[in-house]
Design a protein that fits this description.
By secondary structure, the protein is of the alpha/beta class. The chain is built from 18 helices and 12 strands. It folds into 3 domains: 324 residues, ABC transporter type 1, transmembrane domain (ABC transporter transmembrane region fold, Up-down Bundle), CATH 1.20.1560.10; 162 residues, Rossmann fold, CATH 3.40.50.300; 69 residues, Rossmann fold (3-Layer(aba) Sandwich), CATH 3.40.50. Helix content is 65%, strand content 10%. A 6-stranded mixed beta sheet has the order 6-9-10-3-11-12. Strands 2-1-4-5 form a 4-stranded antiparallel beta sheet, covered by helices on one side. A two-stranded antiparallel sheet has the order 7-8. A hairpin with a 2-residue loop joins strand 4 and strand 5. Helix 1 packs across helix 9, helix 5 runs antiparallel to helix 9 and helix 13 packs across helix 15. The protein is elongated. It is found in: Cell membrane. It is a multi-pass membrane protein.
């Protein structure tokens, strides 16, 4: 019930359609339940007429007028049944589809509100599985099961009313047996539910594994890791088989158990009802109706058993989806508006930070960057270079100290306004499926074609674009596999420059560019960063010799800083790093 209540707020928005569908479903069930009683009346009338004829009663014969009136009522009942069934299906389907639509919308909005730390700590494939497969499981379960469950419950309720109206003694007998079905179903659900939950979790793990390994398929082939991947995949699928078998097998036994209980009740009703007919306490038509009602109870119980697995899968999916929706949002509180562009003065003041509580990465970090400075950050892997950028972008908040821009603590600023002041180019390029023009305009949605071309020329990618058959309208495929890694990097640089940011962040921006293109980019960057504060993370030390200041980091601390010439003259760690790249 708690799981269903998580979804109810989404369904409640469309409660008019939902309640109308339920009302029509009630009419449909009533019309269905009346059917055996109508047949019983016709059968009783025919049996009475035949008995009078056999006994030779005066005026004996078939009462066609009464039978015809009963058939007319039966026909009207059929119209009500089919019309209300159609209407119930339409309105409930509409409300459920709208509910699913809203759930998807809230999920994508939630994804945009989650902090970067969430994606760093969760497998992307697993998140995608919750956004796609789990939401679809919820939709299918409600769409396929809700009407069936509602129909089953209402049918059992109204059938019992008709049973008690026909013969209370036999109705009590059946009512003593039916709870056994409920208890059996509840026990089976209790035993199988944990396995459905495990099945959903393992399926998410499997999707994440496939997404992760297929995205690096070339590397797997290069290092001949197919066997290892196959073994890991087999291990996950073995676990999925194990929990899937247990979930399906246990829940699948429900139908057999319920059918057995139903057969027992049918035999008892037939025996007791036959005795009452012989005693003259029950008409043959009512016995026929009662036995048919016994099967009408059995059918809903079997329907419940059939959709149990789907429902349990949906419950597991609901919990997994709401694990995302219940996550804490990225802090959006602020006390200051950026009413004008920043100048780009940045200060790290006694900053300490750790991704894990027991593992401090940056401690008592201090640095002051003047507006318009080009700051290069170098150091060995794990020194804290990218962490410094993550903190500056406020993808993570500092544990201690503060970071200021133009003297304002960045935690006090409107996050979206703050991010709009930055341009970023990462080592791992990201382009979406679409034209080159659309990808470049992503940096500035208001940019004119002339501005796009100017940015492309500045980063020396215009000539490449024009060499393509469709020029700026050439389409980049989903994986960006139809252009080279170097050209992708150039496009991302052009995109960042088109945004006209006050602060540039470049994390190994030239890592995928050959030496000739690297020189062209450096020339363009020297002109474009004029008047802007820029932070450049680089392993190629030859690319940052013209930086205003170089910060040399190790173990989360700045151990040296100065210009290239000053650091080379100091013959310290930077000198050692630089010379190690040119030993040959």
């Amino acid at each position: 019930m708690d799981t269903l209540m998580k979804v109810w707020p989404y369904l409640k928005t469309y409660r008019k359609q939902f309640y109308l569908g339920i009302f029509l479903q009630i009419l449909s069930v009533i019309a269905s339940v009346v059917e055996p009683f109508m047949f019983g009346l016709i059968l009783t009338e025919l049996a009475s007429n035949v008995a009078d004829m056999i006994q030779g009663a005066a005026g004996a014969g078939i009462n066609y007028e009464r039978i015809l009136s009963l058939l007319v009522i039966y026909f009207i009942r059929g119209i009500i049944f089919h019309t209300s069934t159609f209407g119930a299906n339409f309105f409930i389907t509409e409300s459920i589809q709208y509910m699913t639509y809203d759930l998807r919308q809230d999920l994508i909005k939630k994804i945009n509100r989650l902090p970067v730390a969430y994606f760093d700590s969760h497998q992307i494939g697993n998140i995608l599985n919750r956004l796609t497969s789990d939401v679809e499981s919820i939709s299918n379960a409600f769409q396929q099961s809700l009407l069936q469950i509602l129909n089953a419950v209402l049918t059992i309720f109204f059938v019992f009313i008709m049973m008690f109206a026909i013969d209370w003694r036999m109705a009590i007998l059946v009512s003593m047996i039916v709870p056994l079905s409920g208890l059996a179903a509840r026990y089976i659900i209790y035993k199988s539910q944990p396995y459905f939950r495990q099945q959903a979790d393992v399926l998410g793990e499997l999707n994440g594994f496939v997404q992760e390994n297929f995205s690096g398929f070339e590397v797997l082939k290069l290092y001949n890791q197919e066997k290892r991947v196959y073994e890991e995949f087999t291990g996950i699928t073995d676990e999925l088989y194990d929990v899937g078998f247990k979930a399906s097998f246990i829940s699948g036994n429900m139908r057999t158990v319920l059918a057995f209980i139903t057969n027992i009740s049918y035999i008892l009703v037939a025996a007791l009802g036959g005795f009452f007919v012989l005693q003259g306490q029950l008409s043959i038509g009512n016995l026929q109706a009662f036995t048919q009602y016994t099967w009408q109870i059995a059918n809903p119980m079997q329907i419940i058993s059939q959709v149990t697995g789907l429902i349990q899968s949906a419950f597991a999916a609901i919990n997994r989806v709401f694990e995302i929706l219940d996550e804490e949002d990225e802090d959006q509180s602020y006390s200051l508006e950026l009413d004008q562009a920043i100048t780009g003065q940045v200060s790290f003041e006694n900053v300490s930070f750790s991704y894990q509580a027991d593992q401090t990465l940056v401690e008592n970090f201090d640095v002051n960057v003047e507006a318009g400075e080009m700051i290069a950050i170098v150091g060995p892997t794990g020194a804290g270079k990218t962490t410094m950028i993550n903190l500056l972008m406020r993808f993570y908040d500092v544990n201690e100290g503060r970071i200021t821009v133009d003297g304002k603590d960045i935690r006090d600023l409107n996050r979206q306004q703050y991010h709009s002041q930055f341009g970023m180019v990462l080592q791992d390029t990201w382009l979406f499926e679409g034209t080159i023009r659309e990808n470049l305009r992503f940096g500035n949605l208001e940019a004119e074609d002339a501005e796009i071309e100017e940015a492309a020329r500045a980063t020396n990618v215009h000539d490449y674009i024009m060499s393509l058959p469709q020029g700026y309208d050439s389409v980049i495929d989903q994986e960006s596999s139809n252009i080279s890694a170097g050209q992708k990097q150039l496009l991302t640089i052009a995109r960042a420059l088109l945004a006209d940011p006050q602060i540039l962040l470049l994390d190994e921006a030239t890592s995928s560019v050959d030496t000739r293109m690297e020189r062209l980019i450096q020339e363009a960057m020297d002109e474009l960063i004029e008047g802007r504060t820029s932070f450049v993370i680089a392993h190629r030390l030859s690319t940052i010799q013209n930086a205003d200041r170089i910060l040399v980091m190790r173990d989360g601390q700045i151990i040296e800083q100065g210009s290239h010439d000053e650091l080379m003259a100091a013959t310290g760690f930077y000198n050692e790093l630089y010379n190690s790249q040119f030993d040959q």
